[in-house]
Design a protein that fits this description.
By secondary structure, the protein is of the alpha+beta class. The protein is about 20% helix and about 40% strand. The strands form four sheets. It has a nine-stranded antiparallel beta sheet with strand order 14-11-12-13-26-25-24-18-22. The protein has an eight-stranded antiparallel beta sheet with strand order 6-2-3-4-17-16-15-10. Strands 5-1-7-8-9 form a five-stranded antiparallel beta sheet. The protein is elongated. The mean pLDDT is about 95.
């Protein structure tokens, strides 16, 4: 096995697949990077058993400048090999596997000799049929991920809640995540899905890593489902993730359909106010801010308090305020995450009671995105 390639291109592909490689694994060979060289090109593979990423460098791409002398496969220790590639002196690099699994990496006057492993011992990735594949714009998928993974649980005591529940039915995709304190739901129209039906739970950590690989030059992402795996094909990368087993709780009944108080704010303005209030709440053991709404006097006031440090009080600027007077307390970090997910939009907060969950939706496309936050009981 021997090839020469543009080092920056190789390094970018190496960085992509390295997202799936962990130094902590019960399968030692998975700490390595698999290189598979065929007449068609070079495939780099990284895996931690939960997610796997393949990056393909086509021999016909002028940008790659991939020159193949002989084909073959090898597994190299990922972290050490990555450090070598990053520090090579020239724009191109050559990799050659000699006797056994001895691997020689050269660039300019620099030459490294490292030991490789037999690629035949590397776990095989599943073959997932493309027959019912769906295509989603990469920017929309990335937005959907960022708006929902914020609500996944990090408590392994309820592993099903560490994932995002994805349902595709009747030409729509609905993604929901909840950690029992907050909920995020995003809906997309997928007319091309036709009568396809899928009901899967994808680990939040997998989706976070997928989002990081969706760069601006990727236009669309192809999604394929198998019995216990999902495959996302984005540009030259193939991203595999295992699916979580079990039944996701019915979250539709948690979302209120009526409200007694509503308030509309410009999201960035409210976010800045919440951030200021949380400067105080973060110094307190309970991390809570209080919001007082009085439609009669048309005032909205935000309070942050830390007994040891001090307090803050701020009059909020809103675009509308209606209904009954309300005084409610909540975790400001949940609200900040929710507001960051909507960008510069105008949002509406809808409340039913001081101790009942409240909703946040963008005033435009309100049926496409909703956040639900559970208030905090405080004692005066």
């Amino acid at each position: 096995m021997k090839f020469t390639i543009t080092r920056s291109i190789f390094s970018k592909a190496l960085n992509d697949v390295s997202r799936a490689i962990s130094t902590k694994t019960t399968i030692p060979i998975l700490t390595g990077l698999k290189l598979d060289l065929t007449e068609q090109g070079l495939v780099l593979t990284g895996s931690n058993a939960d997610i796997s990423i393949e990056a393909t460098l086509d021999v016909n791409s002028e940008q790659n400048d991939l020159q193949i002398e002989s084909t073959g496969s090898i597994v190299l220790q990922a972290k050490f090999f990555g450090d070598i590639v990053r520090n090579l002196p020239e724009k191109t690099m050559t990799l050659e596997v000699k006797d056994g699994f001895q691997t020689v990496i050269t660039s300019g006057a620099s030459e490294f000799n490292i030991n490789g492993l037999d690629a035949n011992n590397y776990p095989h990735l599943p073959e997932i049929d493309a027959e019912d594949a769906l295509t989603v714009p990469a920017s929309v998928l990335q937005q959907l991920i960022n708006q929902t993974v914020i609500a996944v649980s990090n408590q392994e005591s309820r592993p099903i809640l560490t994932g995002v529940h994805l349902v595709i039915d009747s030409g729509k995709l609905i993604a929901v995540a909840t950690d029992s304190h907050r909920l995020a739901q995003r809906t997309l129209a997928l007319p091309e899905a036709g009568d396809a039906h899928y009901d899967v739970i994808i680990p939040g950590k997998s989706l976070t890593e997928l989002s990081r690989t969706l760069t601006d030059d990727i236009q669309n992402v192809e999604i394929r489902f198998a019995e216990n795996q999902v495959l996302f094909i984005a540009g030259r990368n193939a991203f595999y993730s295992r699916l979580l087993e079990g039944n996701y709780p019915d979250t539709s009944r948690l979302i209120p359909t009526t409200s007694s108080t509503t308030a509309q704010f410009t999201a960035p303005v409210l976010l800045a106010s919440i951030q200021r209030a949380s400067l105080m709440s973060h110094e307190s053991s309970n991390n809570v801010v209080r919001l007082a709404l009085d439609p009669a006097s048309q005032t909205a006031t935000l309070f942050g308090n830390s007994p040891d440090v001090g307090n803050v009080e701020e009059q909020l600027t809103f675009t509308s305020l209606a209904g009954e007077a309300l005084d409610i307390s909540f975790n400001p970090d949940y609200m900040k995450d929710a507001l960051q997910g909507v960008g510069p939009a105008t949002i509406e907060l809808a409340f039913t009671a001081p101790l009942r969950p409240f909703t946040m939706v963008p005033t435009e496309d309100r049926d496409q995105f909703i956040q639900l936050i559970t208030p905090v009981r405080t004692f005066s």
